Structure formats: structure tokens, C-alpha cells
Amino acid sequence: MPIRVKSRPQRDPSDLRTPSPFSHRFSLELPDISEEDTFRAVVKKLSIYIADTVRLPSTFEQLRTTAAGDGLRTLVEHLGHTCTHPATVNALLALKWHYGTSNEDKSLSEARANACEIVAWRFLQHLSEREAVDYCLYEIQDPKDRDNRDAAPDEEVAGEVDERSALLAQALSGTAQATRNVFSQPQASKGNRRNLILNSISRLTMSMTGEDSDDEDEDPTENFTNLNALEIAAIADAKRFLSQNVVQKIITGIWNGDIIFWDNLSVHSVKKPRFYNPHTADPFSRLRVPKYLKSFEVLFFASFLFLYYAVLVERNPSRITPLEITLYIWFAAFAHDELSEWIDAGSIFYAADIWNLFDMAMIGIGAAFIVLRAVGLHTQDDLLVDLSFDILALEALFMVPRVFSILSLSPYWGTLIPCLKEMGKDFIKFMVLVVVIYLGFLTTFSLVGRDHFSLGEMVMKLTKIFLGSSFVGFDIMHRIDPIFGPPLMILFITLSSILLTGSLTGMLSNSFSRVITHAREEYLYVYSVYVLEASTSNRLTHFYPPFNLLAVVIFRPLRLFLPSDNKFRQARILLLKATHLPIVAVIEFYEWLRGASAKGGTQYSGFRGPRHATIGSPHPARKLARHRISMPSLREVSGPLANPKLRPPQLSSMSESTLIARREDQAAIERAEETAFNGVSSDVEVRIADLATKIDRLTELVLSMQAQSQKSLGEVSVA
User: Fold this and answer.
1) Does the residue 147 lie in any domain?
2) Which among 386, 409, 432 is the end of a domain?
3) pLDDT, tens digit, for every residue of 332-385?
4) Distances in Å between the alpha carbon of 542 and those of 119, 161, 253, 337?
5) What whole-number distance in Å separates Cα of residue 112 and Cα of residue 98?
6) Count of the separate structural domains present in the chain
7) Is the domain of 391 the same as that of 492?
8) Residues near 371 by Cβ (< 8 Å), separated by ≥ 6?
């Protein structure tokens, strides 16, 4: 049976106060989510409640600190005490994504998106750290695969995870089934999966009734298969969710290797999140730790840059040298590694990392160089050969920043990169206006001064003027035309030097200020995407470049006529161990120096934020929440229900000291929540907390005065 919140009692007719716009929340039906519900059902139940609760535009802070978020607090408490569905956080973040991209009533949609994000990270406060890991890393499964596993529970499917299946595919029903999960939707490979997912959620949220009118044969949530909560948060720009300490502890645990997805390299290995135990884990599983993956990536790019400079310095126009052949090998290894990463992560999540755009540019320039170089040598065309080397010189524009991309893990650089990204977007938008004005003046000046200046000369003159050389305009304005030249040129110089340049500077400054205001969230978002991208691959045998070319040369031809069975997989594992043994030895030596092997089960050793006594210990706020499961909320006690006429019978029988004690419990829960999720409070949050304290004191004074008044009335009636 669905759980209902008790409705508020009827108002006294003599009470003429204006009802609160949020009073409808006391009669809402809370979502009854069972563990057997599909992801589709969970999304729909939550969307109905969120849509009914958030009916007015509200800011994030209003939903978090004022009465506008009371319905969200009720939902969080309900989910924390009754809901055990593993896809709860996934569903909330998927709804956040939907509402955040909706074009209908932007302010209301934004409020609902914020509401979903608030409920998602507050729900995690009711969980232990181990439970939070399970919820955040839970992968949405294909209902068809789940039905197959339910039909044959005794079958061994762990060893049938395909090398090309998506993130955290823990138990797929065979290689063909895994391949179907990745390639069943050709639109996804063409970069349209974002639209498919958004349309899927839209189909669920269009109907605000409990009846499911969708066609059962077409599951609109099928496009969410193989995505976990952290991936959805990264795609949905849920930066506040990703910046919470409990989430960052998980992400940093993945980065340091305290949380791993593979504990051994064997034919029957299964990918699932687990805590690293150095006594039982395979040393070769450390190759999948993002920290070591990115460290080797830096070394690979450094060697790549060395070969690049060596080839350009050598610059042999007549033949291909050994250094150039080595550069080609590095290009091929790099391109294959990026292609594999794009297939594993998916086009949506792959595009979330700005450095991947640099990688695509590097691959494009490298391919152009190789093609022109080959054609030039074959046709003995010196011009093409020179052009190929000139194109290769453009590679430095992307390769040099890519080598130092590891700096984005630093808080300083990790904050500047999003700032530059947003400023670049605004600059491109503003340049549209500049081009329009520029073309208008260019046409006029070219036609008026056609006797003295050609079109090319006029283009260069106006470009110099726009870039700051105003004196050029004053020198040529009389030559353009004695009558129209001076006023038009003065107008153009004024527009370009004062209005357009000043507007552009101010707009870029606002963009920088807008991003830097949320510097911590921006940095943690970049950091989270960086870590998640390194851990999304589901390949058991992940070869570091350039060793990945060996796997391609040896095993790719065999796939044409040999089945991809366990022996095939075992051969890949043997090749991986043979080629990566020195790398594993360096990793083991490094961890031995850090004492990781000696300390054994020190999970979360590198985590940020507060730690609890044990991994399975409940959150302090959850302990308090259990103490007050049946208690009324603070708003109910200090709000209109503080009036004895409007107070329900169960509240009327309570002593004032009991009510004050319960308010103190509520305040303790909110303080624990702020400490666990927000870390250091801002100046605004401190003022809000101070105001809330004053309100509580005023409420206690009013209650005590009411008690004294009732006592006096009782004495008078007795007399």
C-alpha cells in the first residue's frame, strides 16, 4: 500500500491568514517503490511526486533551506526509511537531466531539476559508505537480460562478459548478447544517444498519472542500459551532486584504486565494484587503476612529443626514416586507443571531457599528414611533401597542451579550464554579431572606394582597424571617398574600438566570474569526468599503447574465422601479462614504498572528506533519523500547527519540552547533513543558519507564552 502523509486539519473559519503555496505537500502521495520495480517504474513514480511537489519556480538555495523544500525533505526521509531499490539515485539523476534540458517553462523545469539533485545527494546521507558505493556505482541493467538470468539462475554467465560491452556489465548472457547491448542501437554509434535518452525520459514524464500508457514492447528507458549514477550525473551536469563529499570519496577511491572493478585477470572474471584487497587481488588488476592509467598516458604523450619534434627537425623530404616509422606506430596506437575508449564510454560520456576534443584533432591532423606524405612521395611532388610537414607542424597546437593535461587534476588548473571553456563559448557567440557588422561595412567601403582599393586590400585594412590600428582608418578615409569616407570610417572605428571591444571584454569578464564563483564545483566536475572516463572501459584485457597494436595485429585477424571463446580470451590475458610485466613491477614497487601492501585492508585511505569508524557504519544523521521516524517535522511544529486549534490530537498531547527536544533533533540532523555534504559553509549559509537559530528561539518563546496563557485560562476557569 502506498504511504501517505497525514493531511493537515481543517482551518478555523475565523482564521483569515493566506494559505501557503506549499501547503499542498501535506496531502501528496509518497512514491511506493519496491525492490522489484523496473527502472522505468521508479522514474515514473518519482517524476509524479516531483512534479506535484515543485509547482513554483524556486532557486537551489530556496529548495534547500526554506519551506519550498519541505516536500523534498519528506521524500528523502521516506526513501531513506523504506526504499531499497538500487536504481533510486540513477532515476533521480535521470530526471534531473530531463528537467534541466526541458524547453518548457525554463524556470520551473530548473527548479524541478534542482529538486531531483537535492533529493539524490540527501538520500545518500541515509546510507553507510558501503551502501553509497553500491547505489552510486549501480549499473542499470537491461530488463531482457535480467529476465534471462531469472529464467536460468544456475547458469554460469560470469565468464561471458564481452570485451566490448559497456560499463559494469556484471553478468551478460553470452558474447552475442553483450555485442547486442552495445550495437543494438545504431543511432548511439552516430552520436544520437543523448537525444534517445532525453526522449525516453520525456515519454515517461509527459503523463503525470500513475497509469502507464507506454507500449510495453518499447521500453523508453532502454537507452539507459549500462549507465551508472555517476555517469548520468556527469552527463547531466549535476555538478553539485558530484561535488558532495560522499560522492567525491567514491570517485577518489576509484582514482587511487581503493575501489576496483576487476580483482583478477581470468577467463571467468566479472566486472563489479568492490574494495581492493592486496592479499587476494591479482597484481595485474592494478593496470586498470585510473591513477596508473593516467600516469602512463603522460609518459606515452611525452614520448609522442619527442618523436614529433625529432621528425620535424630531421624533415627528410625524399624518404621515410626510422624515426618517422616510429612516429607512425605511435599515431596508430594512439588512434586505436582513442577509438576503443570512445566505443567503451559511448559518444555522450566521451564528449564530456574537453581533452578528448584535442585527441580527435590530433588524430585528424596526423591522418592528413600521413596521407599527404604518402601521396607526395609516390608522385614525387615536393609541394605536397612540404605541405604535409606544414600540416604536421599544426599538431603542436594540440599535442603540447595534451601532454600537460594532467595539470587539470590540480585545483588551480582544474578551475581555469572550465573558465576558458565558457569564455570560448561566449566569444564564438559574440563573434557572430561582429561578423555581421563587419560584412556590412566591408561591402560599403569596397563599393565606395572601388577606384582606390581592391576587395582584398579593404579586408586587410578593416581587419587592422578592428584589431586596434585605428590610425589606419584615419589615413585612408579621405582616399575611400571625400564625402562618405570620413563619417563612415569614424563610425566604424567607434563601433569596433569602443562598443564592440568593450562589450566583448565585459561579457568575457562576466563569464569568468560566473564560473569562478563555483570554482570548487567546476574543478570537482572536471576531476570526476577525468576519473570516470578512465574507469568506464569494460575490457578485461586493456593494453596500454603502443602494446595495443600487438593485440590488434595478432587477435583481430583471428576473429574473422575463430570464435571468441574462453581460449581466445585466455590468449589475450597471456599476451597482456607478457607485455605489461615491467609496468606491473613498477606499480608494485611504488605501492610497496607507500606501504599499501603492508597495511592490507585500509580502504578509502586516500579519500577526501570525513571518515566513519567502519565502512558499514551508518551516517550520524541516519542514526538521528531513526530516532525520530514517527516524529513530526520541524515545519509542522513551528508553523501553523503550533496553533493549538490547528494541532492534531497526537501533537496536542505532547509536552512543550518534547516538541523543543524534537526540534533540536531536527536541527542536529540538518547540521550533520551540512557537515557531511557541504564541507565549509559560505557566508550566505552562515547567515541562513543564524537566522534559522533565531527563528527556533522565537518559536520556543511563543510556545512558552502559549503554555503560560493556557495555564492562566485554566486557573481562571477553575476559579
Assistant:
1) no
2) 409
3) 999 998 888 887 766 666 766 778 888 899 999 999 999 999 999 999 888 999
4) 37, 14, 20, 9
5) 10
6) 4
7) no
8) none
